[in-house]
């Protein structure tokens, strides 16, 4: 289950970024995850809840934006969201496409509280 390793890394990044910005508690984490990553979003949520216990992210809301797979035809430049990962151009039926979205895996932003004031930190 690679979701566990992903969440361990996520918590580590959040801890480091929070420390750099004097954040004492994280309240919201926003992730971007592309569908080509093959990640089970439910498992990410469950692992996040478990791994956040006892950390500055405990109780934080986890917002996940799942990015669909998009492609661009190299022949006619048509851009489309793929259906069932089919990379045949819907305009010219060419099979030569470049994937332009769907591989994402990153923290878009997180919000937290500084020891003195509230803050929003972008990663």
TrEMBL record:
NCBIfam families: hypA. Ni(2+) binds at residue 2. This is Hydrogenase maturation factor HypA. Zn(2+) binds at residues 73, 76, 89, 92. It comes from Consotaella salsifontis. The keyword Cell inner membrane does not apply. Belongs to the HypA/HybF family. The lineage of its organism: Bacteria, Pseudomonadati, Pseudomonadota, Alphaproteobacteria, Hyphomicrobiales. Involved in the maturation of [NiFe] hydrogenases. Required for nickel insertion into the metal center of the hydrogenase. Coiled coil: none annotated. InterPro entries: Hydgase_Ni_incorp_HypA/HybF_CS (IPR020538), HypA/HybF (IPR000688).
């Amino acid at each position: 289950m690679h979701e566990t390793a992903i969440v361990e890394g996520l918590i580590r990044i959040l801890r480091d970024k929070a420390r750099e910005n004097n954040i004492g508690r994280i309240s919201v984490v926003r992730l971007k995850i592309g569908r080509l990553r093959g990640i089970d979003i439910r498992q990410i949520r469950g692992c996040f809840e478990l791994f956040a216990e006892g950390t500055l992210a405990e109780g934080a809301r986890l917002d996940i934006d799942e990015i669909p797979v998009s492609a661009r035809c190299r022949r006619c430049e048509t851009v489309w969201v793929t259906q069932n990962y089919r990379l045949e151009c819907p305009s010219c039926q060419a099979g030569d496409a470049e994937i332009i979205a769907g591989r994402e895996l990153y923290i878009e932003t997180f919000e937290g509280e500084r020891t003195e004031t509230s803050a929003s930190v972008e990663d």
